[in-house]
Amino acid sequence: MRGVRVVLIGGTSNVGKSTVAQVVAERLGFAYRSTDQLARHPGRPWRTAERAVPQHVAEHYASLPVDDLITSVLDHYARLWPRIEELVTAHADGAEGTETGLVLEGSALWPGRVAGLTVPRVAAVWLTAEPSVVRARVRTAGRYAAATAAERHLMDKFLARTERYQTLMLSVVHRLGLDHLDAGDGRTPQELADAVLAAAAAQRAVGRRPSGTAPDGHGSPLTS
Fold it and tell me: For the segment 117-142, what is each residue's pLDDT rounded down to a tens digit?
Protein backbone atom coordinates (compact mmCIF):
# COMPACT_ATOMS: atom_id res chain seq x y z
CA MET A 1 0.00 0.00 0.00
CA ARG A 2 1.86 3.02 -1.26
CA GLY A 3 1.27 6.65 -0.44
CA VAL A 4 -0.27 5.89 2.97
CA ARG A 5 -1.51 9.02 4.72
CA VAL A 6 -3.35 7.45 7.68
CA VAL A 7 -2.15 4.61 9.92
CA LEU A 8 -4.72 3.19 12.33
CA ILE A 9 -3.58 1.21 15.38
CA GLY A 10 -6.29 -0.62 17.33
CA GLY A 11 -6.28 -2.93 20.31
CA THR A 12 -7.52 -3.34 23.83
CA SER A 13 -6.57 -1.09 26.75
CA ASN A 14 -3.00 -1.20 28.09
CA VAL A 15 -1.67 -3.15 25.12
CA GLY A 16 0.77 -0.37 24.16
CA LYS A 17 -1.12 1.41 21.38
CA SER A 18 -0.25 4.98 22.35
CA THR A 19 3.46 4.30 22.85
CA VAL A 20 3.85 2.49 19.54
CA ALA A 21 1.65 4.98 17.67
CA GLN A 22 3.75 7.91 18.85
CA VAL A 23 6.91 6.21 17.61
CA VAL A 24 5.27 5.52 14.23
CA ALA A 25 4.08 9.13 13.98
CA GLU A 26 7.55 10.45 14.73
CA ARG A 27 9.11 8.16 12.13
CA LEU A 28 6.69 9.30 9.43
CA GLY A 29 6.46 12.95 10.44
CA PHE A 30 2.69 12.45 10.87
CA ALA A 31 0.35 13.91 13.47
CA TYR A 32 -0.57 11.63 16.38
CA ARG A 33 -4.05 11.36 17.90
CA SER A 34 -5.96 9.01 20.16
CA THR A 35 -9.65 8.26 19.75
CA ASP A 36 -9.93 9.06 23.48
CA GLN A 37 -9.36 12.69 22.51
CA LEU A 38 -12.58 12.66 20.48
CA ALA A 39 -14.86 11.46 23.29
CA ARG A 40 -13.85 9.49 26.34
CA HIS A 41 -15.79 6.62 27.87
CA PRO A 42 -15.38 6.21 31.66
CA GLY A 43 -11.65 5.79 31.94
CA ARG A 44 -9.27 3.74 34.02
CA PRO A 45 -10.61 3.24 37.55
CA TRP A 46 -7.46 3.64 39.60
CA ARG A 47 -5.74 6.49 41.37
CA THR A 48 -2.68 8.19 39.96
CA ALA A 49 -0.34 10.81 41.42
CA GLU A 50 -2.33 13.45 39.52
CA ARG A 51 -5.92 12.46 40.22
CA ALA A 52 -8.33 10.39 42.25
CA VAL A 53 -10.87 8.13 40.54
CA PRO A 54 -13.88 10.28 39.60
CA GLN A 55 -17.05 9.20 41.39
CA HIS A 56 -18.95 8.48 38.16
CA VAL A 57 -16.11 6.22 36.96
CA ALA A 58 -16.02 4.28 40.22
CA GLU A 59 -19.81 3.85 40.15
CA HIS A 60 -19.72 2.71 36.52
CA TYR A 61 -17.35 -0.18 37.22
CA ALA A 62 -18.73 -1.02 40.65
CA SER A 63 -22.37 -1.17 39.62
CA LEU A 64 -22.30 -2.93 36.22
CA PRO A 65 -21.63 -6.62 35.51
CA VAL A 66 -19.00 -7.40 32.90
CA ASP A 67 -21.58 -8.07 30.17
CA ASP A 68 -23.03 -4.60 30.68
CA LEU A 69 -19.57 -3.00 30.84
CA ILE A 70 -18.62 -4.41 27.44
CA THR A 71 -21.99 -3.48 25.95
CA SER A 72 -21.58 0.07 27.25
CA VAL A 73 -18.12 0.57 25.78
CA LEU A 74 -18.99 -1.01 22.42
CA ASP A 75 -22.07 1.20 22.17
CA HIS A 76 -19.85 4.21 22.90
CA TYR A 77 -17.48 3.20 20.10
CA ALA A 78 -20.40 2.79 17.70
CA ARG A 79 -21.59 6.33 18.47
CA LEU A 80 -18.04 7.64 18.03
CA TRP A 81 -17.44 5.98 14.67
CA PRO A 82 -18.86 8.75 12.42
CA ARG A 83 -16.39 11.23 13.95
CA ILE A 84 -13.53 8.77 13.45
CA GLU A 85 -14.51 8.13 9.84
CA GLU A 86 -14.71 11.87 9.17
CA LEU A 87 -11.26 12.43 10.65
CA VAL A 88 -9.70 9.54 8.72
CA THR A 89 -11.29 10.68 5.45
CA ALA A 90 -10.11 14.27 5.88
CA HIS A 91 -6.48 13.24 6.47
CA ALA A 92 -6.52 10.59 3.73
CA ASP A 93 -7.82 13.17 1.24
CA GLY A 94 -5.43 15.89 2.42
CA ALA A 95 -8.30 18.27 3.09
CA GLU A 96 -7.53 21.82 4.17
CA GLY A 97 -5.99 21.81 7.64
CA THR A 98 -5.04 18.11 7.37
CA GLU A 99 -2.09 18.31 5.01
CA THR A 100 0.00 16.21 7.41
CA GLY A 101 -0.59 12.47 7.58
CA LEU A 102 -2.14 10.95 10.70
CA VAL A 103 -1.44 8.08 13.08
CA LEU A 104 -4.66 7.41 15.00
CA GLU A 105 -4.83 4.85 17.80
CA GLY A 106 -7.55 3.64 20.12
CA SER A 107 -9.83 0.82 21.17
CA ALA A 108 -12.61 2.61 19.30
CA LEU A 109 -11.03 1.36 16.04
CA TRP A 110 -13.30 -1.67 15.90
CA PRO A 111 -11.97 -4.01 13.19
CA GLY A 112 -15.30 -4.61 11.46
CA ARG A 113 -15.86 -0.90 10.91
CA VAL A 114 -12.28 -0.16 9.91
CA ALA A 115 -12.26 -3.01 7.39
CA GLY A 116 -15.33 -1.46 5.77
CA LEU A 117 -13.55 1.83 5.00
CA THR A 118 -13.33 2.60 1.30
CA VAL A 119 -11.01 5.58 1.73
CA PRO A 120 -7.67 5.15 -0.10
CA ARG A 121 -4.24 5.64 1.50
CA VAL A 122 -5.29 4.12 4.84
CA ALA A 123 -3.54 1.21 6.63
CA ALA A 124 -4.57 -0.51 9.86
CA VAL A 125 -2.97 -2.86 12.38
CA TRP A 126 -4.30 -4.24 15.67
CA LEU A 127 -2.04 -4.87 18.66
CA THR A 128 -2.68 -7.80 20.97
CA ALA A 129 -1.10 -9.27 24.10
CA GLU A 130 -1.64 -12.30 26.30
CA PRO A 131 -4.14 -11.59 29.12
CA SER A 132 -1.36 -12.13 31.67
CA VAL A 133 0.66 -9.31 30.09
CA VAL A 134 -2.26 -6.88 30.11
CA ARG A 135 -3.12 -7.88 33.67
CA ALA A 136 0.42 -7.21 34.86
CA ARG A 137 0.49 -3.80 33.19
CA VAL A 138 -2.84 -2.73 34.69
CA ARG A 139 -1.85 -3.93 38.15
CA THR A 140 1.46 -2.12 37.96
CA ALA A 141 -0.19 1.11 36.79
CA GLY A 142 -2.83 0.88 39.50
CA ARG A 143 -0.40 -0.19 42.23
CA TYR A 144 -2.58 -3.20 42.84
CA ALA A 145 -0.44 -4.65 45.62
CA ALA A 146 -0.95 -1.52 47.74
CA ALA A 147 -4.58 -0.91 46.76
CA THR A 148 -7.58 -1.34 49.03
CA ALA A 149 -10.05 -4.17 48.48
CA ALA A 150 -12.51 -1.71 46.92
CA GLU A 151 -9.82 -0.35 44.56
CA ARG A 152 -8.80 -3.86 43.55
CA HIS A 153 -12.43 -4.69 42.80
CA LEU A 154 -12.62 -1.79 40.33
CA MET A 155 -9.37 -2.81 38.66
CA ASP A 156 -10.55 -6.40 38.41
CA LYS A 157 -13.77 -5.29 36.70
CA PHE A 158 -11.78 -3.12 34.28
CA LEU A 159 -9.50 -6.06 33.51
CA ALA A 160 -12.42 -8.40 32.92
CA ARG A 161 -13.90 -5.90 30.46
CA THR A 162 -10.49 -5.41 28.80
CA GLU A 163 -9.95 -9.13 28.32
CA ARG A 164 -13.48 -9.62 27.02
CA TYR A 165 -12.96 -6.79 24.53
CA GLN A 166 -9.77 -8.40 23.20
CA THR A 167 -11.47 -11.78 22.79
CA LEU A 168 -14.30 -10.23 20.79
CA MET A 169 -11.91 -8.03 18.80
CA LEU A 170 -9.66 -10.94 17.87
CA SER A 171 -12.60 -13.02 16.69
CA VAL A 172 -13.41 -10.29 14.15
CA VAL A 173 -9.75 -9.76 13.21
CA HIS A 174 -9.32 -13.48 12.50
CA ARG A 175 -12.63 -13.80 10.66
CA LEU A 176 -11.74 -10.90 8.35
CA GLY A 177 -8.06 -11.84 7.97
CA LEU A 178 -6.77 -8.52 9.31
CA ASP A 179 -3.22 -7.61 10.33
CA HIS A 180 -2.40 -8.01 14.01
CA LEU A 181 0.84 -7.97 15.99
CA ASP A 182 1.76 -9.39 19.39
CA ALA A 183 2.77 -6.36 21.47
CA GLY A 184 3.53 -8.43 24.55
CA ASP A 185 6.32 -10.64 23.21
CA GLY A 186 9.21 -8.55 24.53
CA ARG A 187 9.80 -6.34 21.51
CA THR A 188 10.62 -2.70 22.18
CA PRO A 189 8.26 0.06 21.02
CA GLN A 190 10.76 0.84 18.27
CA GLU A 191 10.73 -2.78 17.09
CA LEU A 192 6.94 -2.87 17.18
CA ALA A 193 6.86 0.38 15.20
CA ASP A 194 9.06 -1.32 12.58
CA ALA A 195 6.54 -4.18 12.40
CA VAL A 196 3.59 -1.78 12.10
CA LEU A 197 5.30 0.09 9.27
CA ALA A 198 6.15 -3.14 7.47
CA ALA A 199 2.56 -4.34 7.79
CA ALA A 200 1.19 -1.02 6.53
CA ALA A 201 3.56 -1.07 3.55
CA ALA A 202 2.44 -4.56 2.56
CA GLN A 203 -1.31 -3.94 2.73
CA ARG A 204 -3.34 -3.73 -0.46
CA ALA A 205 -6.60 -2.89 1.33
CA VAL A 206 -7.29 -1.41 4.77
CA GLY A 207 -5.90 -3.89 7.29
CA ARG A 208 -5.28 -6.63 4.73
CA ARG A 209 -2.17 -7.97 3.05
CA PRO A 210 -2.13 -10.04 -0.13
CA SER A 211 -3.01 -13.68 0.47
CA GLY A 212 -0.05 -15.82 1.45
CA THR A 213 1.75 -13.03 3.31
CA ALA A 214 2.60 -13.73 6.93
CA PRO A 215 0.66 -11.51 9.36
CA ASP A 216 3.84 -10.48 11.20
CA GLY A 217 6.26 -10.50 8.31
CA HIS A 218 8.51 -7.79 6.97
CA GLY A 219 7.47 -5.60 4.10
CA SER A 220 9.18 -2.78 2.31
CA PRO A 221 9.51 0.68 3.90
CA LEU A 222 6.34 2.74 4.06
CA THR A 223 6.26 5.68 1.67
CA SER A 224 4.33 8.78 2.60
Answer: 999 999 999 999 999 999 999 999 89
